[in-house]
Amino acid sequence: MGRSDHPGSPRRNRGAVWLWVLVIALFLGALTAYFVFRDQNRIRQEEGERIRRGSGHVALERGDAGRTGNFKTQGLEQLKGELWTFLPEYPIYASPVVMDGTLYVGDAYPVPSVDGTWAHLYALDCRTGSLKWKYRKAGAFFSAPAVSEEVLCCAGAGGLVALSRRDGTPKWEFRTKGWVSTSPAILDATVFFGTSEGMVYALDLATGEPKWNSELGPHLQSSPALSGGRLYIGCHDYLYSLDQGSGKALWRFKTGEPLTSTPAIGGGNVHLAGSDQILYALDAPTGKTVWTFKARGSLIASPALTPDLVLVGTYAKAPSSQGTLHAIDRATGLERWRFLTHGSIESSPVIAGETVYVGSQFGGLYAIDLKTGKERWNFAAPQIIRADPAVADGIVFVTSNYRGPIYALH
Q1: What is the pLDDT of residues 102-114, one digit of tens each?
Q2: What is the C-alpha separation between 206 and 190, in angstroms, rounded?
């Protein structure tokens, strides 16, 4: 006798039940996926808004977006000694950056490549030198990171990466053709940086999505400085002024030799140290020359500003040469005083309180009275000091090349 398959039979009913079970399961799965996607999208949007809101509180190389080298913090007028030292895995060529009690600095293998070597970004406690976290990446970190409340942006071989400031977790990465050996800047929820091939980028700080890019030409070795809705950056032997919102070139100024320094903006002027031994003061809106000063040697490091002075150090290729720190009147371009260092100056001077700090090729870090030009103290590091020092809450942080440690001085 054959099996009954008429409507209402148990077999037909079981098939209908399983069909409804499948339909309901698919519906519930789709509904769950929708709510998960919606929640993830909401979390990303909230995180993006936090990152953008946090861009108003930043720590940058040279102290601020104008790259003045002037740290609004307590200086160190008398040296007691070393508070702590930290030995990185590879040499440090970059300047440290300090924010809210944490020091951030990257290292680089001496012969770096994008894929064959590793670099590290360290987060250290400013008071103890203890390691909070470490980020490891192929390539090299040759420049200081830019730090906001939520994220820090560090540049190296192959592009720019954004990390969580709290634990170093990667947020996003932007790849470039050229190397990025200069320090990015953060302003108005945007990160700005340039590459060795002469491209300048503006990226959304929260997502890494490009807002604009501008091609200037090869051999870009200058970090961007920002002021008054404009971005100033050196590329080869020109200083460019770009519109901060669009990247449109507004003017350019030609110097005598390729630029390696970063401009410092203050008092309506752009202050530029040239490899042609000239310190330039240019009118920021027009690029017209306000005054020039002829230094005692090549100027490859960046100037620092006080309300009254421009400070800049000289470099000579001969290793036995002295360096000169010039203090120039910002209004007239005339020299107020000069200070001689043992060895040339590759490190850009920085200011905190009434003291200016500068390193030399022979490993000396000098603290100099701003008013008189007299030495307050000096610290002898065992290696060349190329990177700029950083100052926070009465502690001076300085790095020494060729596997030298990071020093915290107090």
Answers
A1: 999 999 876 645 4
A2: 8
